[in-house]
Write a structure and sequence with these properties.
This is Nucleoside-diphosphate-sugar epimerase. By secondary structure, this protein is of the alpha/beta class. It has 12 helices and 14 strands. The strands form 4 sheets. It has a 7-stranded parallel β-sheet with strand order 3-2-1-4-5-7-11, sandwiched between helices. Helix 2 crosses helix 3, helix 7 packs across helix 12 and helix 8 crosses helix 9. The protein starts with 6 loop residues before the first strand and ends in a 20-residue tail after the last helix.
Length: 337
Amino acid sequence: MTTTQQRTALVIGATGGIGGEAASALVRHGWSVRALTRRAQPAPKTAKGAGIDWIEGDAMVAADVARAARGVQLIVHAANPPGYRNWGKLVLPMLDSTIAAAKAEGARILLPGTVYNFGVETFPRIDETAPQAPATRKGRIRVEMEQRLKAASAEGAPMLIVRAGDFFGPHAGNTWFGQAVIKPGAALKSVTEPSTRGVAHAWAYLPDLAETMARLLDQADRLSAFEVFHFGGHHLAWGEMTASVRRVTDQPRLPVMGFPWWLVMALSPVVPLFREMAEMRYLWREPLALDDRKLRTFLGDVPHTPLDAAVTASLRGLGCLDRPRHEEATAFTPLEG
């Protein structure tokens, strides 16, 4: 679907992985994109960040968000405290600022969702209608976020949620892939498998996810006031991600390490980050896939970059492979699946 009317979006969290990819995807799809940031951003050296109007402000300050959102038709709420820090104190107030701005402008909110909402009773394959009864604090916060968004959708701020598995991509350093599976910034000496042996896991390549979101928004006239989709991404059996890393680095004997869950659990009472990680261990001990039949019915073809190509771009972006002479690996290449 094409449109001749200029569309304007505000992205909150554009310096992060999914926020940055969403901003770039929207620019490709003809949107005028603003991004709220607490610090002035330098001119981009690559395709990522090009065409984005950076506005200084704080997502915790409702007046800053309202000012940045003036006249927009879309707010992408991709704000996420790094390393799980201060989730309880920051996540909901930031969302409330977005909701207030969206209601004032009559703008749609796009939320990149997670599987935190769901308990193991809904595994191994989760669709959009699965009951939400999380056993974790972050899961309960996610449920509360969606409840607030649903209420806002009945008050003039339509909502689009796209839930996905664990993120990876060329600009996704603050993720399990970028911090646990590999060590960024240098050639790899080992690769780590966080899952329990034999357990499959859901992964989402961020350029694919962001392109999917942009395509959904291109058909906004078909979306309901409160719309939820699941993005299937890469559903990988145990060892498939690490095998791909070995292939693309041309290191067939690259050591594969088990994740030190024993250490995380032992130190979780005294190390805040480990406590937050330990809470999410269940996602690596149980098989998990997102049922994306609704999305495929709606869009038809869904962006799906082959695993080795996605891992290559991710490792390059995270400084683990030599960079090519140009930056094409950091831009989305539409590969349909």
